[in-house]
Automatic annotation (TrEMBL):
<feature type="region of interest" description="Disordered">
    <location>
        <begin position="35"/>
        <end position="56"/>
    </location>
</feature>
<keyword id="KW-0862">Zinc</keyword>
<dbReference type="InterPro" id="IPR000962">
    <property type="entry name" value="Znf_DskA_TraR"/>
</dbReference>
<feature type="zinc finger region" description="dksA C4-type">
    <location>
        <begin position="90"/>
        <end position="114"/>
    </location>
</feature>
<protein>
    <submittedName>
        <fullName>TraR/DksA C4-type zinc finger protein</fullName>
    </submittedName>
</protein>
<dbReference type="Pfam" id="PF01258">
    <property type="entry name" value="zf-dskA_traR"/>
</dbReference>
<keyword id="KW-0479">Metal-binding</keyword>
<dbReference type="InterPro" id="IPR037187">
    <property type="entry name" value="DnaK_N"/>
</dbReference>
<feature type="domain" description="Zinc finger DksA/TraR C4-type">
    <location>
        <begin position="85"/>
        <end position="117"/>
    </location>
</feature>
<keyword id="KW-0863">Zinc-finger</keyword>
<dbReference type="InterPro" id="IPR020458">
    <property type="entry name" value="Znf_DskA_TraR_CS"/>
</dbReference>
Length: 123
């Protein structure tokens, strides 16, 4: 990978990381608001026909936070692969990960063929 390519990947991963950190901060703030709302003993959202309950909303936010934290870990791992010269190589078969896949998923660990064979893998 040329230094220019290296810098471009680092820039892309940095933008992904910044976006993910911002999302985590926003979700964390929203979760605090929902938790505070549930602490109000007069809050009876279980019988509100207009929308989801606070418990459901809290669950959705927690799930989004979990996924976002995994994404952040994967982005950080991609920075490590970039620093070690293994970025863009499939961790399963060692083949090159296609540029289209890396464009869509810059933190990808596996080529499409290996990711397809084991659909439990997220990256």
């Amino acid at each position: 990978m040329s230094p220019r390519d290296h810098d471009g990947v680092r820039s892309t991963l940095g933008a992904e990381r910044d976006s993910t950190v911002s999302l985590i901060e926003a979700l964390s703030s929203r979760l605090r608001s929902v938790v505070e709302a549930t602490a109000d003993s007069s809050s009876d959202d279980e019988h509100d026909p207009e929308g989801t309950t606070l418990a459901v909303e809290r669950g959705q936010i927690v799930a989004q936070l979990d996924r976002s934290r995994v994404r952040l870990d994967e982005i950080d791992a991609a920075f490590g692969r970039l620093d070690h010269g293994t970025y863009g190589r499939c961790e399963s078969c060692g083949e090159s990960i296609g540029p289209e896949r890396l464009d869509a998923l810059p933190a990808a660990r596996h080529c499409i063929a290996c990711a397809t064979r084991n659909s439990a893998r997220r990256w």
